[in-house]
Structures are given as C-alpha cells and as structure tokens.
Amino acid sequence: MILETKALGKSFGRFAANADIDFSVEAGELRAVIGPNGAGKTTFFNLLSGTTEATSGTIFFKGNDITRLDGTKRVHLGIAKAFQTANIYPEQTVLQNCRLAALAHTQGAFALELLRRSGRLSGVDALAERALEQVDLGGVAGVRSGDLAHGDKKRLDIAIALATAPEILLLDEPVAGMSRDEARKTEALVRKLASSMTVLIIEHDMDLIMGISDSITVLEAGRVLANGTPAEIRANQRVQDAYLGGHSEAEIEA
Amino acid sequence: MNAGVRFALFTAIGLALFPFAFHAIDGYAGLATQILIMSIASIGFNLLLGYTGLLSYGHAMFYGGGGYVAALLLIRVMPQQPNLWLAVLGATLAATVLALLVGALAVRLYGIYFALLTLAFAQMIYFVVEQSQDWTNGDDGLQNFPAALLPIGPYSIDLGTALPALPLGPFGNLSDIKLWYVFAALVLFGVMVGVRALTRSQFGEVLTAIRENEERSTLIGFNAPAYRLAAFAISGALTGLAGALRALYDGSVPVDAVGIDRSGSFVIYTIVGGVQTLLGPVIGTGLIMYLESVLSARIDYWRLIEGIVFVAVVVFLPAGIVGTISKKAKERAQKNRALLTQSLRARNGGGDSQSESNDASRRGASAPGGAQAGPERLSK
After folding, report:
1. Cα separation of A239 and A229, whole Å?
2. Range of A67's domain?
3. A50 located within any domain
4. Are strands A223-228 and A15-25 parallel, antiparallel or unpaired?
5. What ipTM describes this predicted complex?
6. Which domains does chain B have, with CATH numbers?
C-alpha cells in the first residue's frame, strides 16, 4: 500500500467537499478517480498533494502519516502533481521548467549553496532532459514554454512533475481540452508512465479511463460511491444513476 | 572577453571617471561619494523588489539602523580605537539580524500587506530611536562621533585624506577627491559584482521562478518563504551596510535616516532607474540625488520637480530609465537576428533545419534559444 487515506474529509464552513474518504492504492497501480462535476475529485487531489489541508481524517504514504505535511515536503517524499490547467513557468524555456523541478529534487527545499553555483549541475540537467524525453518534448527544449500549444503545455506540466522523480504521480484531467491527436498521444504517455510508477488520474474522458485504468474509484458529493475494476464500475447501477443524474449516457457507456 | 569581465571593467572605469564628469555638471565630489553609498542601499532594495516582487516601504529601518549601530559602536564600544571595518561589519550584521526577524513575519505576506507591515516595523524602529534619548540623542541624531580609521595591515588610513593635487580643467582637480570616494567606489564595485553573480546564480533562478509562479514552485519542492527570507536578509544587509557607510562618511546620523521619507527614497531611486536591472538603482540614485542637491539650491519647488520626474518615469518609462534602454537594445538585437535568419533562409531556399521548422510550427514564432520575434511573425 503506497498511499492510503482514512476517513479523510475537507469542509469549507458547513460544506463538506470531501467526507469520510477511505482510499488505498497499491504501488504500481493506475487508479482513476471519477465522478460527476462537483463530486470533490480535485479537492481530493489537493488533499493528497498537500495544497489543501484536511479538516478530518488521515493520509498515509508508505505507512507514514503525512496529513500535516505541506505540499513542498510531500514532493520531496515522492508525491508529484500535474495540474488541470497547465501550471508552468511561461517565461522560461521548456528545459528550464524541468530544470527547476530537478534542482529542487536534487538540492532540497532550500539550499543557500545555490548562491555559489552559477554553473550547471550535471545531474540536474540529466534529470530534466529525461523528463522532457518521456513526454516527447525534447525537440523543443529551448523554446519559451508560454509559446507552446495547449497540449504541449499540459505535457510539459507532467514533465515538470516527472523531473521531481516521483513515486506517485497525480494527474488532474491530463487530456482536458486536447485535440483527438493530442489526447491519444497523452494516453500513450500515461500508459508508459504507469509501468514505472503509481499513477492517480482524474479524467472525464470515459473511453480513456475505461481503457487504461487498473481500477476506478467513483466519488459523488464528496464521498466514495464505488470502487472496482472498469468492468465492475461500468456495470454498477448506483454509478450509472449518479452519472445519469446530470450527465449524458454516452459519458458512462462506451 | 567574457561578459563578467567586461561588466567589471566598464563598472570600474565608470566609477573612476564619475566624479570628474560629475564636476563638469556642477556636482561636487562629496555628493558623488554619497551617491555611491546610497546606490548600495538601492541595489539592496532592488534585489528584493526585482527578484521577489516584494515592495518594502520600510527599508529605512535597515539603513538608519545600520547608521545608528555603526555610530554607537564608535561612541560606546571603541571610542579609543575607532575601527571602520568593525563598525561597518557590526552594523551590517545588526541589519541582517533585524531583516531576519522582520522577514520571518513579513515574507508570508504579499503586495500592499507586505509594504504595510514593513512600514509598520520601520515606524516602530523610528519611535524607539526617537524615544531612546540617552542612546540616540532623540530628534537631534548623533554627531561628532570619533572619525573611524581604516586599518589595512600596519597602516591606519584616514579616509578623509585628499588625493594629490592635479588640475583637470573643467573636470576639477584630483585633490577634490578624498579617499572616501575611492573606498565607497570599491565597496560599490564589490556589491555590484556580487549582486550580479547572485542574480545569475541558480539561487537567482529559483527566486525568479518563485516570483513567476509560486504555486508551481512550492509543488516542485521549493520552500518559497525561505528563499524570500534569504533575499530579504541580503537586501537588509546591503541597505544596512550603506547606512553605516553614510553615517561614517557624514560623521552624523540624523533621525530621518530611519524615517518614512528615507524608505520612500529607495522606492523612488529604484523605480526611476529601473527595477530588475543592475545599473538602474545606481542611475536612479544618482539622478534623483543630483536633482535634489542642485535643484534645492536654486529652486524653492524642487520637491515638486522631483515628483514630476517620478510621475513622468512611471507613466512614460514604466521599466525605468535603464530598464527601458536595455529593453530597446534587446528588441533591436532580436530584430536584427530575425532579419538575419530571414535572409539566410531566403538564400538557402527556406527551411534551413528540420528542428527549427518543427519548432516554428509548434509555437507560431520565435527562434530556438528563446528569441522572441521569429522570422514567421515578421513575414506575416
């Protein structure tokens, strides 16, 4: 069990965005988290990545309680996240985006000795370049990242996460807004990544989810509605009802 | 010659020629020395504003704090053997500690809240200084403290010593220059070379990254408040160093050194010269101090003129004087490069390399290496 939550909850005032979430992922698993809009998926990811503090419950990473650790500390433990909207450094080159992540990984959260280093650290460059190769952006390493196309920006965001050498990668809607070609490319990327690390993915594209996930967790109204393999989830009547409540049938069929 | 050596050489030449050129436009050598000293504070202020985006409205606490500590060290601790090194070092350390204490609270705030908190701390320091009559002489400030000597090896140098006489026509006389100017120029030179190295180090890259996207920076593993605190401490240290030098040079510390006007002056010097440039704070400090000194002697409304200059720069040159010039130069260089690429392509029959045309189609325009205006954009 690499990541586990017990009765995890997040309330904003009286509104419970997440409540009573018991969740566990095995190392190496590719787990999808799905649910209708407003089900609390992104809040759940924020609780796992440490950008939001839980109001109840506990999070364990490899058996250690990390509930009170902030996002920066969790990255250094090996939990990285790619954002729903590409979260990059638009003014920096594509390579520099990844170098920064690799620099944080190799030098730690705060390193005054960086003052003395103006040259390049070879390990940092290697890590950054490998991350770029993984998402197939090695050819545009010198480009200002703000000039990239939408799909490339999102893959760069994933590369930034990879450059922190994570053990578990959180992907928040990695194909949202992508063209069919870009989405297919990203799907192949997610499959490839899942062979070397644990991947949690939020996605609305049901074709993709049903095709690539080992298992699926369905959230509704901030709570876990169901857990199971893609086949089990597809056959689950409660899941169908939840989706049909406000969504087209096509979204869950396929 | 690499860029670092060229920078050092031009800076050294500029500092060596400055007081003579300054004389030709009615500036006097003493003002030249003060400008150099104040530039150190402005560079410190700009390190914070330019590289973390935090605008401090309380840097007088470090400047005046440095001045008072240096003076008190001479008066209370070593009146018999006033050592300039120790006074300056002690004052700089004190400013650093103060910056770490204030920064520990302030670096978690942004924008106006950060400005207000630093202002509040500076005002607290001001009232402490004003009320501590026995130590600080209250409103009158400290004067007549022992002139510190600069021990170097077996020698004890009096920085008040003038250089040998040598008439230079419209540029005055070499003997107008005291060793103080030479000393201030050496310190400023060291600060400029050091700050340039800092901003080009990976530490500077991390600061830039945090300023550009703090959320991403914390989620790749950087402790953003710690980096900001480090920048704040270095900024405070440089400003404290300047305050100490100014006190020792003037031989007095007015209570205004910790006042709100002084805090505001660093904002003005830096923004007029150009935030995020190395030379900007120096140019801005020189220009405003020159205007103040020359205009205040001739015109009653010099404050008004100063205000108009500030407004004009903010409105017409938002990047400041140096910032605007360097931006224009960069744009011109990019344009030239783009034209060159274009003509090379035309000669090669278009598409000179596979990767480049790939890049261009991916991002619309811009040449590899980060140049902005690519050939495509120009040809459209």
Report:
1. 13
2. 1-78+198-254
3. yes
4. unpaired
5. 0.91
6. 3-318 (1.10.3470), 326-379 (no CATH)
